[in-house]
Specification:
Blueprint: H1 2-11, E1 12-17, E2 32-37, H2 39-61, H3 75-82
Antiparallel strand pairs: 1-2
Helix pairs in contact: 1-2
Length: about 110
């Protein structure tokens, strides 16, 4: 990400223009500033930006390898993790485990 920031900072920049008289002195009356740009830095910034977007999209389509439910800020998932099941007796003595716990399949 910092590379994109750096290439963008190199793409567009302010240039002070100080005209020099024929005798070698700076002409203070015609001093002005303008905006300059670098085509190569702009092209590089576009390429890096596209690569970053592609990387984000590819990471978004990746499947999480575990069967663990992901509920970072979902209050329902957090509540379910904090409230024990009725059949859990002396659960505080057992090892801690987070993730998908297989449930027996009931028939009928």
């Amino acid at each position: 990400m910092f590379v994109l920031h750096w290439t963008l900072s190199q793409a567009v920049f302010v240039m002070p223009i100080e005209p020099i008289k024929s005798d070698g002195t700076v002409d203070e009356t015609d001093h002005f500033s303008t905006v300059g740009f670098s085509v190569w830095a702009i092209i590089t910034s576009i390429i890096i930006g596209i690569l970053l977007l592609v990387a984000i999209i590819v990471c978004g389509f990746r499947r999480y390898p575990s069967g663990m439910p992901l509920g970072a800020t979902c209050s329902v998932v957090i509540s379910a993790a904090c409230h024990p099941h009725q059949d859990d007796v002396n659960v505080f003595r057992l090892p801690v485990l987070w993730g998908a716990i297989p449930q027996p399949v009931s028939t009928g």
